[in-house]
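Dear Dr. H.,

I hope your travels went smoothly. While you were away I took the liberty of generating a structure for the chain from your last submission, since the lab meeting agenda had it listed for discussion. I wanted you to have the full record in hand beforehand rather than looking at slides cold. The sequence, exactly as received, is reproduced here:
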Amino acid sequence: MQKKESCGLGLSMDVDADRFGIIDSNGTFITPNQVIPILLYHLNRTRGWTGIAGKKHYDKPSFGQTCRKDRR
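The corresponding predicted structure, in token form, is as follows:
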């Protein structure tokens, strides 16, 4: 659709927006690994944002924690 409609950029995401896709005006896919550093650079330069960009968290115990619990 993006190429058919002559759009400059195509954006798509899943229902909860934890995955996304971007294509340029030629239909070339731009990976999240390419987009995120550019976005962070932009936010730092234009808005002065600094600090940690993301942090992992888990709602389940890790494998190591589970093994330690089972050993007692």
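Two observations you may find useful: The chain has one domain: 9-71. The longest helix spans residues 32-47.

With kind regards,
E. W.
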